Amino acid sequence: MGYETKCRARVTDAAGVVREGDATVLLETDELIVRGAARIKIPRTAIQRATVRSGVLTVTAPQGVVAMSLDADAAQKWLKKIQEPPKRLIDKLDVKPGAAVWLIGIDDETLISQLEERTTEISRGRSATSCDVVFVGVETDKDLDRIGRAMKAMTDSGAIWVVHRKGPTGVADTTIFAAAKAMGLTYTKVARVSDTHTAEKLVRPVASRTRR
Question: Which residues span the domain enclosing 206?
Fold first, then answer.
């Protein structure tokens, strides 16, 4: 999940055009995104410099210059976040070394590659047991039954990551949450997987684990 704030922002784009207004600013794994009148997206790898002066955070990149009006403490926190190396996908997904993982309908090459770096216990078959983490691809509503299969395969304290397409063409997160609730699962976290896909983390409630 990204870092977010609302503030006054001034953006000078690569053509020298200046836009200013109230904005929502998000620091995602791969991008700094400014929404509002001063709209711009800057890849984190393109950020050349970030400085703070009198509560104003200024970020410089070839795409443009963003000046965010914050208080002194918030500006320093944002500066620190921008200067930190972004987390790799595998670390956001809480997969521990050696974890038993099952992939159902997953074909994202980056995700698979990083999983293979982290553990050799990866199953791609039609069934699995005693899984610490199950990744479920949901492209249509018909794929939601995969969550039930994953639940039967995971350990009591295991987790299911439901990977689905962003936007109106994908299965809505509210639909996924409703299906999960009906199965006795609870939502705990969201993670960006790629430009096109996101993932929701589902687990058994702690009280349910105790009863089991």
Answer: 89-211
